[in-house]
Specification:
Shape: flat
CATH topology of the domain at 69-155: Serine Threonine Protein Phosphatase 5, Tetratricopeptide repeat
Largest sheet: 3 strands, antiparallel
Number of strands: 3
Order of helices and strands: HHHHHHHHHHHHHHHHHHHEEE
Distance between the termini: 109 Å
Helix content: 55-70%
GO molecular function, one term: iron ion binding
Strand content: under 5%
CATH architecture of the domain at 69-155: Alpha Horseshoe
Subcellular location: Cell inner membrane
Main location: membrane
InterPro entries: LapB, Rubredoxin_2, TPR-like_helical_dom_sf
Strand order of the largest sheet: 2-1-3
GO biological process, one term: regulation of lipid biosynthetic process
Structural class: mainly alpha
Length: about 375
Amino acid sequence: MDFDLQWLLIGLPVAFALGWMASRFDLKQLKREREDAPRAYFKGLNLLLNEQQDKAIDAFIEAVQYDPDTTELHFALGNLFRRRGEFERAVRVHQHLLGRSDLKAGDHERAQRALAQDFMKAGLFDRAEAAWQALEGTAFDGEARLALLSLYERSRDWQRAAAVARQLEAAGTGAFGSRIAHYECELAEAADAAGQPFDAEAALQRAREASPQAARPVLLAGHRLLKAGQPARALDTWQALLASQPASFLLVAADYARAALAAGQGAEAHAALTQALARLPALELVQALEALEDPADPARLPRLLAHLQQQPTLSGAQRLLAVPASQWTEEAWPLLQSAVKRGAAPLQRYRCAACGFEAQHYYWQCPGCLTWDSYPTQRLDAL
């Protein structure tokens, strides 16, 4: 017993000493690794600021190897991969973060958002949709719904786009009434094309409720009435638009004249268009008036010349050229010249033979590629 006790008394201090030495070694090793991690991190940051992304990525990978649990390094590395277009590597980094059970809730949401951005940038819209949907109800809820709205618009899924837009508006993110009206009009046009008039009418009603001042539902409603053989009702619908939004009315000016002729209300429509032309000089209104008149009406040419004087455009000049020259007055030719000159001026450009840079003025040295004597001296009509 004395012998055993003696060795025990000797062994305990030895074991304690060895354990203390081992712990000191581990502490030094751990301290060295912790010192190496920030050193690699700051090295990567410096390289990133110097726009040396390849070397910065290598430095960040080294830092992650020293300290795999550092989430910020993973986020930085994933963002670098995404910026460089290496979406597969970015996805792997962010999926690795999401797979960690010790990740905080806030960091988990950040990783989910980063993953959704990876899929968006990579053009993987179906996977991006699922990733954004996983963020609903989180701190990134608004951003996720806006991204989903963009995805649904891109895929022309108007029903889901309208639903998301209504959710965003209800949450106070912004006003989406105008966009909802467009979505519903798209649904109405699709329903009409599929032979579902009742669904089309319901969609138009929702569009008007979403944005009472929107012009598109009114335009579409008039077109549907005209197509259904109700030109008088189409005229009434568009008449309100002519009074409230004459600029939008220009899109249906020709159809308005056609509906007026079909409804036997040419004189009333002519008077309304004449008043509108006095407020808004537009070639569309001039053409609509001509559609209601006899080709030999003497008022046609003076009205066209007055329009050319106010707006000397190539379209107006083309309209004048359709009139027989024998009917022209003295002021017709100068107005035609003025319109052609004004319309052709922006098209006349010098084009660099080296890089294709176009300019209205001649340059001895190209402002685009800095090449000397690269501009031909002859102008081109750049269309």
